[in-house]
Fold:
Amino acid sequence: TGSTQPQRMLEAVQKNATKGDPESVFSAIDYYGRHKEWAMNVGDEKGLILDSVLTEVNPSIALELGTYCGYSTVRIARLLSPGSKLITVEFNPAFAAVARQIIAYAGVQDKVTLVEGPSGDLIPKMKERFGIKSFDFVFLDHWKDRYVPDTKLLEDCGLLRKGTVLLADNVICPGAPEYLKYVRNSPRYESRYFKSNLEYSKVEDGLEKSVFLG
Ligand SMILES: Cn1ncc2cc([C@H](O)c3cccc(CNC(=O)c4cc(-c5ccc(F)cc5)cc(O)c4O)c3)ccc21
Ligand SMILES: [Mg+2]
Structure:
């Protein structure tokens, strides 16, 4: 029945995953994305890099730009220590509606706050709305031409601190060339590229990890 891809993805989760088991939820999405219908989730291969960076940072407060169906939201939330929070930003109401159901199905809803709206509007409101001093970790996976303006916005709003880790998806495919130039040429970031592949594909892609130096 599911008329949109997100709805079909949700159906695949409800059919194949175990309620309350985050691992089974993102595995069901990976199976769907690999064998049924390609989908723009960070995926299992880049997901392992996300897992390792996240485990290393162990953030108390994390931000995700671009929820889509909640695949990386669930991947991140499952690894958060008790009391830690993930705020995820999605502007598309249809995506947000599916993501809320997938996040709930995985049982990680207590760790996740999904805010609906464009990142450019929401970032300046983070401090007042959520009482955030600064983020420990930021995952960028929304429109690739928003990576630079939103990174600058996070800086200007005082939402980054010495040691905040930014992890950006798709820096090769579809690509975020301006973002790579920005973080690699700025003295305020220490950047490293993690080579991988585009989700469910053999095409090269990778994640850029950038530590804000203050
Ligand atoms: C402003 N604002 N604030 C919040 C917010 C949230 C959104 C949505 O979540 C949204 C909607 C559509 C597209 C994206 C970006 N993602 C991609 O475009 C992408 C593409 C591919 C790929 C690769 C190869 C292809 F051939 C085709 C697509 C692989 C990937 O992993 C991707 O992440 C994100 C958008 C703007 C937002
Ligand atoms: Mg992506």
Observations:
- Residues 134 and 159 are 4 Å apart (CA to CA).
- The longest helix spans residues 22-36.
- Strands lie at 61-65, 85-90, 112-116, 135-140, 160-168, 189-197, 204-212.
- Residues 40, 42, 141, 169-170 surround magnesium ion (ligand 2) (CB under 6 Å).
